[in-house]
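Weekly sync notes, structure subgroup
Attendees: PM, AL, DS (notes)

Item 1: joint prediction request from the bench team. They want all three components modeled as one assembly rather than separately. Inputs as received:
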Amino acid sequence: MKQSQLELSAGAFVLLGIVAIVWFAIQAGARIPIGGSSYALNARFSNVGGLKAGSQVFLSGVPVGRVAKIDLDPQFTATVHMMLNQDVHVPSDTIASIRTSGLIGDKFVALSPGADPQNLAPGSTITDTESAVDLESLISRFAFGSVSSSPSPAVTK
Amino acid sequence: MLRLLQMVGRRSLVTVAGLGEFADFVSRALVAAPTARQLGKGFARAINEQGVRCLVVITIVALFAGLVLGLQGYYVLARFGSAGLLGTFVSLTLTRELAPVLASLMIVGQAGSAIAAEIGVNRNSEQIDALTTMGINPLAYLITPRLLAAVFVFPILTTAFAFVGIVGGYLSGSVLLGLDAGVYWSAARSSVDFGDIRECLLKALVFGLLTIAICCHSGFNTHRQIGASGSRAVGISTTRAVVLSSIATLASDYLITSFLV
Amino acid sequence: MIDSKLSPILTVKELQKQFGGHVVLSDVNLIVQRGSIVSVLGRSGTGKSVFLKCLAGLLEPDGGEIRFDSGGTNTSRLRCSYLFQANALFDSLTAFENVALPLEQTTRFGTSEIERAVAAALRTLGLEKFAEYYPAQLSGGMQKRLALARALVTRPALVLFDEPTAGLDPPARHSVFSMIIRYKEEYDFTALVVTHDVSEALIFSDRVALLEKGRIYFEGNPADFAASDDSVVRSFGDNAITDSASRDW
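Output from the run, pasted for the record:
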């Protein structure tokens, strides 16, 4: 009958629609490792300059996790809490640095692994860090010619 | 001068009374939901009326909106040498702003006007009075299923709009203008985060309830139109429904955006 | 049976209704006995429809009392149907769906029970072949019968008829009234008919009431009405016949 047709198309519409919404949400949330096992790692920075919860963490250019949250402790240093994929282990002398994709792009955390045979345990804190580069101070330093005299690690690229 | 003040006062009183009456109308329709019989039947019909019938027009509008966004965005971004951000630009613009607003405006044009006209005719030919005399709550029978359908239809069609729009941006940005497809898609995918989707769906939900309620209310009160009756009153209440719904969409969009961001 | 026939099903006391200072009903008193056909006559614009709408609950009276009496021990709300002048059928529903609507929405009947009741009502009114037709595809007389089927399917105790003969030619008018009488026996309801069709009303009604200047001016048997010496009643009776004929263009 006509009524059952009506109900059929309505049911199909709602079902497909909800599937689409969920898929859409998962696509967007794909950067958050949902369900996938991960472990916590912290890093202390003097300046996180625009990094925010949800920013990505890269190791050799490969995304391996994301920033869970950022705290400010009483010493005015920022502690970045990261969640890393379970199967990625980094040596204990790893350096964490905050980089920018492109000139004005998103901030992300780049991990540069060291050579120590011991790996960082879950929940431990990286203290060997490079803070975000302040573009304006960089430009001003460049303008006043002081770049070459005090090479900053961040300028090497 | 005194008369001007008096007029302002009267107008504002009428406006406030109208808003109160509207809120009363909506709340009574929602309260009637548990008592409504055969709600599924009316709900299925309303889903078809608002959702299925609008799918085609939503797809077409979304495709062109995406195509234009891709073109314009590409030229502007290329000027700054960051055409790679096109995916970000298109997907964020669509999810946060264009998809909810344009989808809402299109559904109002297609389904909202039909709802207002249909309920207006129901009112005109005493069908609403007939419901009352049969002991059927007209709000529960005519309004409640439509409001419930709006809760589902608007978020769904908004999602469809956003998706088709992003594909449209890909077509003009990548296929037409030669931006690398991988760059476009990865930027589009990684830039939209959970908060953006929440904003998008929240807007869709608010627009849906607001606009469909306005259209229902306008049609339901066709007989209270001042200075017009009969078929002309149906025409006026249809126009009114579309105009007020469009204004409500854009005004509430501004409010939601300014409070949320 | 005799006892229940003598008990009033509807009592109206001092009913008042005005619209923005314009008094339509000033003091209406009427008692309708169970199982009877009562016609309320009156010139157009005397508030007959307003009176009926107050009874049906579509208009809120400004004063007075309307009391329905279900008769038995059952004190639940009286089942009362209203037959609109323009039928007020749902034009987007088929004939079957129109009749099924009150059952679906107000009773706990299952689908098969509803189907049976609707089919029976349509058959009684000779519409069984038109179940899948839309109201717009039916003739005026069939629409009227469909509206009656919808009104009767809930087995009401009282049916309010608002100008059932408006817009019909004389033979059709006659058949509408004989229809009321026929189905009254079958469905056992009380009929309150508002009409300006004096000649038909006098033939078919048990009681006749004349609404004039916001009150019931005359109430009695059709024979008394026809024989009345009162000038208002007389002038109304004489004029209305020609009036109603010329009105129904």
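Discussion: Residues 86-124 of chain B form the longest helix (39 residues).
Action: AL to compare against the crosslinking data before next sync.
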